[in-house]
Amino acid sequence: MYIGSGFIRESSLFGSRSQAYHEVIVIATLFLKQTFRSLFRRKTFSFINIFGLALGIACSTLLILFVQYETSYDRHFTNADRIHRLVFDVQPSEDIIPTCRSPWLAGPTLKEDYPGVEEVVRFRSFRNTLIEYETEQFTVESSAAADSTTFSVFSFDLLTGQAETVLNRPNTIVLREDLAQRLFGNINPIGQTVRINNTEDYEVTGVYAQNQHATHLDFEYMTSFVTLTQPSGPDNVNSWYSIAYFTYLLLTEDADPAQLEAELPGFLDRHIGGFVELYGMRLYAHMQPLPSIHLHSNLFGEVGNPGSFSQVIVFSTIALLVLLIACINFINLSTAQSANRAREAGIRKVFGANRNQLIREFYGEAAVMTTIAFLVALGLTYLFLPMFNHFTGYNFSLDFLHNHVFDIGYLLLFIITTVLAGSVPAFAFSAFRPASVLRGQIKHGPSGSRLRTVFVIFQFTASIILLIGTLVVYRQMGFLQSHDLGFNKDNVIFLRLSNHDLRQQVETMKTHLMEDPSIVSATASSSVPGSGFPVRLFMPEGIPDDEVREAALIIADYEYVETLGIELADGRYYNRDMLSDSVNYVINETLAEQLGWDDPVGREFDFPPRGVAPGRVIGVVKDYHFQSLHQPVPPLVIHMTAEIMNLLSVRYVPGRETEALAHIEAVWNELAPGWPFDYYFLDSYLTNLYSDDKTFGDLVGIFAILSVIVACLGLFGLAAYVAEQRTREIGVRKVLGASSQSIVMLLSRDFLSNVAIAFLFAAPLGWFVMDHYWLETFAYHTSVGIHLIFAAGLIAAAIAMLTVSTHAIRAAHSNPVDSIRNE
């Protein structure tokens, strides 16, 4: 076998296996020695290749961690492939409302009718509840009432308790491990009693481990579902008309989900005639595979925050682009050195090396460089990981021992990178004829130059597209912050009234709050902008008695419009002196327009079944954005009833925030002693609605900059090569009177023209992707703007110019006599 400049006998000629091993070691040692000698001979190019690859691999690794996490949701459950969520679409009129929930009776009835349904689990989720044990109390962000079959169907790690019995009795509760530790410390929680929302006591029957895997069912505690059937529970149990519960079906191993879904229309027709007669609305049922829920379901009433499949595609694409840019650097710098490497390959062929041996050597060299780059990339990944976690809000880690999917992906990444980085040099240089090489007849000019030009254009096309995306995202974020929402979000604090006693004292609390001059007004409501709202069915004047319409419903008191600064378009708002207002309604402009009412004030209006005479519309508020700008303003009804309002909003005098907070807390502690004082600023709360969009923009921006850096590393190496190859030409030009500025422009012109061509490709692509895909996810959005596109191009050109000019200026200021003598 040939290696380096000598020959080694084939291992089969050795008499013993140990001698064969010895020969392999000798061959590997000689190969590595030769490879490192070659790398050190070209220190600048080797550094750029290795660091560029390492940076590209590190970026790809971080993005792969994100993509793997987002695509792994709920796949860790043992029966994940057999679990489906039953969801219902509601059609009260022409429009269909897709929801992720189902009626109480849907799951159990389906199990009775179809043997393919092995088990059913139902949840009812709750937000921001208070849990207490003796003197310890905590606000729990996410919890649920869960069926007794929960731990049999879902493979939650139950640390204590029996899966079949922990939730089979009323008023029992299972705690997540971290919550149990906070409440009880070292005390055994089993058999202890906790209180929820200061109203009901629950016995602790189990503790389950905190989720180590991604799941949309991430609850801090679960109470028994059967508790909802108690007299204190909701009045919509054992019925079809309330679409309020999450239902999951565990199918038998031989069940066909598609066949079962095809039978759902007949199932509904048998049990409810397809209609819920109480409201006159039609229901449609569908099934969602459990692993697809996070990325492919954004239905009304989702529990948790759904992911975005489009973001997964975007980040996967960015990871691939950055890796390609890094590999292109390797190929470009390798082909740029074609004269030296071809001469080396030619001499080896003269000494007997065949083409396959040279190909293996060039691949081996690429593998060595890739291995070094991967080791450097690991260090960079560990360095960047805390910042990446900060931006995403996740807690990623490089766990090679347990994350086998990541291990396989990392190995594939290594192989792909080695193949991409080594293919062109291996096949190009090994094809040179020894005689031509030794006579200096090497064609490394036009064809190699064209290939490098194509690669540079590709690199900067990708980088400019990412820069355009970054600028558009930040412009949209600015638009969201400055867009007129139709109400005044500033100087408003709101508090959650989780306790029944607190809600009963809301008028007393408002009276006490108004005693301080720092408080302008206060209002109680069922929701504030951004906090969500129910959709209710109603019967307006002018439609048949057997039809209904749907609209968002907000329950609010007399000061709601004043406190939030909402403007009236017609009529009036609720008045304490008008006793009849308790049966009247205020609607928004969108609802009036949808109903075709030019004169909505005085029209009859009713929510069935209410059991009282229909009310009338007394006012119309101007449209205001009470949900994210991703969605258009829906039709809205603001109603004032004795129904529970669990939010208290307080407007304070601008500049007196500290004084107002102190007074609000004092009133809270007086009327709600022992309850945590949790408050939110409305403007910050609304900003959080776009946190995912901001994170997306930040990450695209970071990786756009990194892609430009990686591309410019290659440009830096190519500029060094061009300056080196044109040393004699530069010297002659300077002797003939060329200025330094003209030399700089001569060396920079070709590179800048490549960036300009890349811009011509990137501009329409970047505009199309951002305008037709990302901005379209917002009902209200800015435009891409031609100035943003040119700004991205100028940024790329400026960075490229700075990169190239480093070598160009050095070459332009060199002594021409030395340049000619050295040549």
Description:
Helix content is 48%, strand content 17%. It is an alpha+beta fold. The strands form four sheets. A six-stranded mixed beta barrel has the order 5-6-11-8-10-9. The protein has a six-stranded mixed barrel with strand order 17-18-23-20-22-21. A hairpin with an 8-residue loop joins strand 17 (535-540) and strand 18. The longest helix has 38 residues, at 355-392. It is globular, with a radius of gyration of 35 Å. Mean pLDDT is 81; it is low at 1-14.
Q: How would you sum up this structure in a few lines?
A:
48% of the residues lie in helices and 17% in strands. Mean pLDDT is 81; it is low at 1-14.
Morphology? globular
Radius of gyration: 35 Å
Nearest-integer average pLDDT: 81
Please report the distance between the alpha carbons of the first and last residues. 38 Å
Give the strand tally. Answer: 25
Largest sheet: 6 strands, mixed, barrel
How do the strands line up in the largest sheet?
5-6-11-8-10-9
Please work out how many helical segments DSSP would assign.
Answer: 25
* Helix share, percent: 40-55%
Low-confidence stretches: 1-14
Structural class: alpha+beta
Task: Note the beta-strand portion.
Answer: 15-25%
Kindly list the characteristics that best describe this protein.
823 residues, alpha+beta, 6-stranded mixed β-barrel
Give the SSE layout.
Layout: E1 2-3, E2 6-7, H1 17-41, H2 43-71, E3 83-91, E4 97-98, H3 106-113, E5 117-133, E6 136-146, H4 150-153, E7 158-160, E8 172-176, H5 177-184, E9 193-196, E10 200-208, E11 221-224, E12 246-251, H6 257-262, H7 264-272, E13 275-276, E14 281-289, H8 293-296, H9 309-336, H10 338-350, H11 355-392, H12 404-429, H13 434-438, H14 446-482, E15 492-496, H15 500-504, H16 506-513, E16 519-525, E17 535-540, E18 549-555, H17 560-564, E19 568-571, E20 585-588, H18 589-594, E21 604-606, E22 615-621, E23 636-639, E24 647-652, H19 657-671, E25 679-681, H20 682-687, H21 691-725, H22 727-735, H23 740-774, H24 786-812, H25 816-822
Parallel strand pairs: 6-11, 8-10, 18-23, 20-22
Antiparallel strand pairs: 1-2, 3-4, 3-12, 3-14, 5-6, 5-9, 5-12, 7-10, 8-11, 9-10, 13-14, 15-24, 15-25, 16-24, 17-18, 17-21, 19-22, 20-23, 21-22
Helix pairs in contact: 2-9, 2-11, 2-12, 2-21, 9-12, 9-14, 9-21, 11-12, 14-21, 14-23, 14-24, 21-24, 22-25, 23-24
